[in-house]
Design goal:
The chain has eight helices and five strands; from the N terminus they run βαβαααβαβααβα. The chain is α/β, with parallel strands linked by helices and 170 residues long. Strands 2-3-1-4-5 form a five-stranded parallel beta sheet. Helix 1 crosses helix 8 (155-169), helix 3 crosses helix 4 (55-69) and helix 6 (106-113) packs across helix 7 (126-136). The longest helix has 15 residues, at 55-69. The chain starts with a strand and ends with a helix. It binds shikimate-3-phosphate. The site of shikimate-3-phosphate has 10 residues, from loops. Residues 12, 16, 35, 46, 80-82, 119-121 line the site of shikimate-3-phosphate (S3P).
Length: 170
């Protein structure tokens, strides 16, 4: 394998963390969640970090953590939905990993994120916020090596597709 990590990117609610956990188990690689590492490093939850220091600060820490994590090999890495907005992050991900973009239908995303209040960018009218952000980020995930629409797929199928894709990409 030429590029050693698997990096999951995609909009909020597309299944990056749950697929990542299962894939890591299958590959017997560690699973790393960038948001979780940010929370550990900063000693504060993501919503509180956004609230106290703002999104720009969060994005700076996010980039730092991504760059650090990408120095290691053989890890499954789930990134936050906005991690791909910085070109520098995208380049790092492509250089040191297979980048897999997960997507889902808007209605599916809304249903998945509705019950979770840990997403500062979705506060207020969730349907409206998801619609606006999806439109803004329409092409944000196009740079990935492989794209998978998870709407109708089980986690096991998605993991199979990623493993097959990794072999084909080599
Ligand atoms: C964000 C997505 C979140 C988290 C933060 C910002 C985004 O991660 O990083 O709330 O900009 O899309 P998930 O995609 O895991 O929800």
């Amino acid at each position: 394998m030429k590029r050693k990590n698997v990096v999951l990117v995609g909009f909020m609610g597309t299944g990056k963390s749950s697929v990542g956990h299962l894939l890591a188990k299958r590959l017997a690689w560690p699973f790393l969640d960038i948001d979780h590492l940010i929370e550990l490093q900063e000693g504060i939850s993501i919503p509180d970090l956004f609230g106290s220091k703002g999104e720009d600060y969060f994005r700076r820490v996010e980039s730092q953590v991504i760059h650090k994590v990408m120095e290691q090999d053989k890890q499954v890495i789930a990134t936050g939905g906005g991690a791909v907005l910085a070109e520098d992050n995208r380049n790092k991900m492509l250089k040191n990993g297979y980048v897999i973009a997960l997507s889902a239908r808007k209605e599916t995303i809304i249903a998945r994120v509705k019950l979770d209040h840990n997403r500062p960018l979705l506060q207020g009218n969730v349907d409206e916020r998801v619609g606006i952000l999806l439109e803004h980020r329409k092409h944000a995930y196009d740079f990935a090596d492989l794209k998978i629409d998870t709407t109708e797929l089980t986690k096991d199928t998605i993991v199979e597709m990623i493993i097959n894709g990794m072999e084909a990409l080599d």
